[in-house]
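Case study B.
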Amino acid sequence: MTAAGGDERPAGARMPRIAVLGNPNTGKTTLFNSLCGVRARTANFPGSTVEGRVGTHRSPSGAAELELMDLPGTYSLSIDVPESQVCRDSLRGALDGRAPDAMLVVVDATNLRRNLQFAAQALAHRLPAVVALNMWDAAKARTPSVDPAELARRLGCPVVPVSGRTGEGMPALDVALDTVTTLPFGNDALVARLQKLPAADASPAALAAWADGVARAVAGPPPESAGDALVDRIDVALTHPFLGIAVFAVTMAALFSAIFMVASVPMDLIDLLFGSAAEAVRARLPEGILAELVADGIVAGIGGVLVFLPQICLLFFLLSLLEDSGYLARAAFAVDRVMRRFGLAGPSFVPLLSSHACALPGIMSTRLIRDDRERLATILVAPFMSCSARLPVYVLLIGILSVGRPAWFAGAAFVGCYALGAAAGLLTALLARRTILRGPGRALVLELPPYRVPSLRNAFLTTWDRANVFLRNAGTTILAISVVMWWLSAFPRAAEGDERAQQASSFAGQLGEAVQPAFAPLGFDSQLTVGVLTSFLAREVFVSTMGVLAGAGTDADPGDDSVLERVASMPRADGTPVFDETTTAAALVFFVLAMQCLPTLAVTRRETGSWKWPAIQLGWMTAVAYAAALATHAAVAALNGAP
Amino acid sequence: MSAASDEPGATVRIPLTQLQRGQRAIVHCADIADLPEGDRCLLHAMGMHHECQIRVCSPGTPCIVQIDSTRLGISAEVARRILVTPIDDAGAAR
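Model:
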């Protein structure tokens, strides 16, 4: 058998594919990033929520190109977890119909015993292989060090000591990868290799005994794990039931404050840039449908996609730094006992907290969660968390409710909104885990990686990758939906310049009139119903819609007192105020709980690979919001002594 | 699950959760019978196999143990089911 590729393959032939495998926390991703840089993209595997990355590696001479497939890290190739299944499927070509031409098995040189067990399972496959003895910089400082030549002899394949962090040994790895895909790999080589390895059906104990024997032969007896008292003390503090959670809360508060503060500048700039671009389009194109389509549909739609990018990039950059530092695993461990009460896992906390900034990056960050059911439950409830887009709505409605009330009322109402969203999310998770997502959670056995200085390069590459995923997938859906929503609110045409008449006569307006009876029990009239429907694209649109309907213009700012007064005094058809106390309270509760965000549905579709979950999310959240708003309406009416 | 054997000469087996910080012990994975198969296999693959030596970094429930150079955080429900034999600094069972 001859491995594919190399310099001798004919023009147009596929690049040789190399599967990159290894235990988690072996520096596999750092090594992959060193080999591929930005020439990599996230790859989803059919039928699995686990993902990997595919990249192109060019040899230093530029003569050969290899396709590297970074498979998810797993502790064994024979356990029943998605990561292991994806690796097994990939090695036998069941993922996309093409088996790899060779393997790069990444082994942590500082933890040989455990890593060699995985290496033995991987090397039992009929593929040429190279073993990268990663973290060599740390391993060679130990006494005794590892003997790579002896290890190669015992594994029956080339072993290259490397350090993905420092770049040490990378040229040798380049040569080994080029060679492994060009040299013949026949039965003799395979048989010779298999004779050195434990039997394919070896028990875990036999595998462990073999790995121990090889490790002793190449690196001497295991060092007495003297332990590090300082690391022990830090671990005790960071995973303490109270102190650990307090440290996590402070860390997350700092992280999201940073995201809010730093991201607001580029977000405002993007907003300004696309606002100006839309104006420029209107000025240059003849007045009419085309100008409106380009300015209000396409340009506004692209702006509506890009405006989320700063928060997404910052979140993933900072999370990557935290994960790389070794802290995130400790934090997940600390909050696990709290999250378990609601059927979620410790790592669910980060996406839920992220969703308070924006549900989009929150849902995208659920990839930290290993268990499928816990991940889906987290995705399902993430939009219940009060995101920044709800703030303008809260400002408007709480502002109306606060008139004539003591100063503390507004603050308490804001806290109440955030608490209501979080409570609804956690209770929904509990319900989901006992019904549609029933099943045991994964018992928490978590590797706590060593503390280290995080890699900026890794953080940048992760951020680049996440931004690309967002723009390529969710972004295109969001843009298409934006254009459709523009069409619904722009047609049929009303008198030129009369925005209020346009709102009322558009398909969206007509839809508002048609569905108003359904919202009547909440006290919503047709104007408020139009506001609810148009804000289905994004919650903050509610403020501008109500501003238009109240005659304040599309640039309505909820912080502007005149806008607040105009909206607060909007009359119904019978002359009574739209925003009476009962209706305003019901509308506030509705917006806290309702799924009024199409981009979130698009991202849920992308992350779950099915429209089923966004449909459940939309249906459940709308039902909960409606029921809670109805109860609020009745309760406030009863308190006010209404009949 | 019994915390210790009563047979004369048998080594003491106690739940992992009863070890103190810094204490070392030998794991008896054969005794983790009531854990789901998947969790047992994962524990094995993560390095906690029969007769491996551990050191307790953070005791209690949940706990953190060290195997070779790897630190594992283990939830209370799993840690309670793992029986170990404490050893002294010379490596002898106590």
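Confidence is low (pLDDT under 50) at residues 1-9 of chain A. The remaining cases will be described in the next quarterly update.
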